[in-house]
Amino acid sequence: MQSASTVFLVRPVQFGFNTETAASNHFQQTIAGLEQEAIQQQAFAEFDAAVAKLRAHGVRVLVFDDTPAPPKPDAVFPNNWLTLHPDGRVVLYPMHAPNRRAERRPDILDSLRSQFTVREVIDLSYHEQEGRFLEGTGSIIFDHEHRVTYAGLSPRTDADLFQQVTSLLGYRPVSFRATDAQGHAIYHTNVMLCVGGKFAVICLESITDPAEQAAVTDALVSTGHEIVTISLAQVAHFAGNMLTLQPAAAGPELLVMSQSAHDALTNDQRQTLSRYCTLVPLPIPTIETVGGGSARCMLAEVFLPFA
Fold first, then answer.
1. Which one of 83, 189, 215, 276 is at 20 to 30 Å from 149 when CA atoms are compared?
2. How far apart are CA 163 and CA 272, in angstroms?
3. What is the pTM of this model?
4. Residue 148: which H helix or E strand, with range?
5. Cβ neighbours of residue 19 under 8 Å, at least 6 residues apart?
6. Is the previous residue joined to 285 through a cis bond, with omega within 30 degrees of 0?
7. Phi-psi region of 13 (alpha: psi -120 to 50; beta: other; left: phi over 0)
């Protein structure tokens, strides 16, 4: 199954501009004239509205509150520190920024164990001591149905670790290099690529090596995906940062994105995507501007079997 019907989110309590991640995340921006308290309150409001909208569309949403100490400005993006798989395996990932490593919370795992079957925890966080990083579904895009993984290599996405995890889980890896309009490595794959069951949204112009671009295109086409190409300008509005979800009850698949991503799409792109999914835009301007991540980054998919 490509799309999860259960996700978990972390409500932030110390949300803000993370100086430790800014060097590699060129999507982060400060908001002039907005005090930290106002940023936190706006993030709260955006978060709660997003949870309510997901639930209204039939998604099973689990919410964990961030802990006040130590401060974790990016705790709202839990998809970077773990993945939860249908065979009961959990993978914990090595994080690039030291102040993000406290996001890996045993209490959240314990809570998940009370509801789902966890058969094995694969903890890769020790690679942080080697300076090697792989940040969950920020780094890795999973095509679960065809058992293919995609990764744009960057300071946060180590090539060897990507190969190791992909092999461990029994997938076929496709790696490449992607850069933004300024020539910087795009920090996470999930801002320029979304793979659904029958479609893929991708910024092909970010992959400047012709052979790598051809390999990615061939992998997507050969697995039956209609390619919806977005531009670097649209990537800057998080138009690639999307995730398909399946309502817990019967109903069409959902494609979750931010409101800014939705607005950056052309009418033709929206019409194409609407053939496959109901589009669900979430207004999260403060979270994505200050945090440098968008709707997909807030969603940790739970594929674990129920206990």
1. 276
2. 33
3. 0.95
4. strand 148-153
5. none
6. no
7. alpha
Q: Give the list of residues 6+ apart from residue 43 with CB closer than 8 angstroms, or none.
A: 12, 15, 76, 286, 287, 290
Rounded to whole angstroms, the Cα distance separating 221 from 208 reads: 19
51 is written with which tokens? 């949870």
Length of the chain: 307
User: Strand, coil or helix: what is 46?
Assistant: helix
Cβ-contact 291, 50 below 8 angstroms? no
CA 135 to chain CA centroid, Å, is: 9
CA distances from 148 to 45, 70, 192, 302 (A): 36, 36, 17, 19
